[in-house]
Automatic annotation (TrEMBL):
It is found in: Nucleus. Its main location: nucleus. This is Zgc:171929. It comes from Neogobius melanostomus. It comes from the Eukaryota. Pfam families: zf-C2H2, zf-C2H2_6, zf-H2C2_2.
Length: 181
């Protein structure tokens, strides 16, 4: 069974491989992971039930991240662009690998340092580093988008957890058109 989830792993099928005491081994395919959470995520690829089907080809995934990555093969959306050449990539890790191998640029991130998040419209490829700008784009250009419906649902759930006097009002939900821009 093939699996392409998360950071690289190594397989213990080879003769020279022996997992160290801190490693976590998949009992199905014998792949080894340095962290329990990586093994737990990987185990989903062996499940016969796939909760998230691709709307283009029907292939199923158990993780929305894997579905999103797969769908970009159909849509051609490549939000991670190299600033040194014309190449663009579907995943940040592919861009970083390209920068290192082709341009000799090594990304310098501290241990567990988060990279800046970009918000990607999976309908047209629009990208923004600002969530407000992204949701404004979604509202204006793709008002029926499932991503926008999920956002509205999350906002409603967040507001339900507050008492009526504490409820937050999101300005982006107030207007159907951005009169305030």
């Amino acid at each position: 069974v093939g699996c392409n989830t998360g950071p690289p792993f190594y397989s213990c099928r080879g003769l020279n491989c022996s997992p160290s005491s801190g490693d976590f081994v998949c009992q199905v395919c014998h792949k080894v992971f340095p962290l329990q959470r990586m093994l737990t995520r990987h185990l989903k690829c062996h499940s016969l039930v796939k909760r998230h089907p691709c709307r283009y080809c029907g292939k199923g995934f158990n993780d929305t991240f894997d579905l999103k990555r797969h769908m970009r093969t159909h849509t051609g959306i490549r939000p991670y662009k190299c600033e040194l050449c014309e190449k663009a990539f579907t995943q940040r890790c592919s861009l970083e690998s390209h920068m290192r191998k082709i341009h000799g640029v090594q990304q310098q991130y501290a241990y567990r340092q988060r990279r800046s998040k970009i918000f990607v419209c999976e309908d047209c490829g629009f990208t923004s580093s600002r969530p407000d700008e992204y949701f404004l784009h979604m509202r204006q250009c793709h008002p029926g988008s499932p991503a926008l419906r999920r956002y509205y649902r999350r906002q409603a759930q967040d507001n339900d957890s507050f008492s009526p006097t504490e409820r937050k009002v999101n300005p982006y939900l107030l207007y159907s058109r951005p009169y305030y821009m």
